Amino acid sequence: MDCKVIEQILADALSLTEVHVTSDGSHYKVVAVGDCFEDMSRVKQQQAIYGPLAEQIASGELHALTIKTFTPTQWKREKLFNM
User: Which superkingdom heads the taxonomic lineage of this protein's source (predicted)?
Assistant: First the structure.
C-alpha cells in the first residue's frame, strides 16, 4: 500500500496538522500530529488512527503498523530533542 494513500486517508478522517507515513516492506510507521489528541488516552489515540484504516487492515492490505501520536506542542518538543 502506498504511504501517500495512508496519509490521505488519515488526513481526510482526522483534524491533523501533520501526518507522515513511512514503509519498510510490509511494516508501516505513522506519525500523526493534531490537536485532536489533546485529551485522549494513549489507547484512544491509537484507536483514532486504526479506525480510518480498519478496511485496509481487515483486507490484509495494511499489515504491521507502528503509531506515534502527538499534539502540536508535543511534536515541537519531540523534534527539538530527537532531530
Answer: Bacteria
